[in-house]
Specification:
Helix content is about 10%, strand content about 35%. The strands form three sheets. The protein has a four-stranded mixed β-sheet with strand order 2-1-6-5, covered by helices on one side. Strands 3-4 form a two-stranded antiparallel ribbon. A two-stranded antiparallel sheet has the order 7-8.
Length: about 130
């Protein structure tokens, strides 16, 4: 029997992009990356574990900020090369997923050739991270 992790089409670095979507609102919160170990731990723990490309190690979402993502569903796209997590963002109301202190990382909207910020900073990032 094939291991469920073998169905994922990992890139040349052994990674797969992951979209985190808020289960309640449907908001797309962020895009991150997972390696095989991160995806396995996410499934085991029921909380989002990513792979930090800049640090070269596993990143337990919320390990510094307290903004943990509890995972309700793990979905694989039709080409088997993108994962989507349906999550509840914890640690602050409303949930903060972005390191800028905003609800979503997708807070810039292209409007007539100009990027406009559409979401407020909910908490100063200087107070979130050590």
């Amino acid at each position: 029997m094939m291991n469920w992790l073998d169905a994922v089409h990992w890139d040349a670095q052994g990674l797969v992009p992951v979209i985190a979507q808020e289960a309640g609102s449907g908001d797309v919160l962020m895009l991150a990356w997972m390696n095989r170990e991160a995806l396995q731990k996410t499934a085991e723990l029921g909380r989002a574990v990513y792979f930090s490309r800049s640090r070269g190690k596993l990143w337990f979402k919320g390990e510094e900020s307290g903004h943990v993502q509890m995972v309700h569903e793990i979905r694989l796209d039709c080409d088997h090369d993108v994962i989507m997590l349906k999550v509840t963002q914890t640690g602050h109301k409303p949930g903060i997923a972005c390191h800028t202190g905003r609800h979503s990382c997708f807070f810039s909207l292209l409007d007539n050739g100009v990027w406009k910020v559409t979401e407020p900073v909910l908490k100063d990032p200087q107070t979130i991270y050590k």
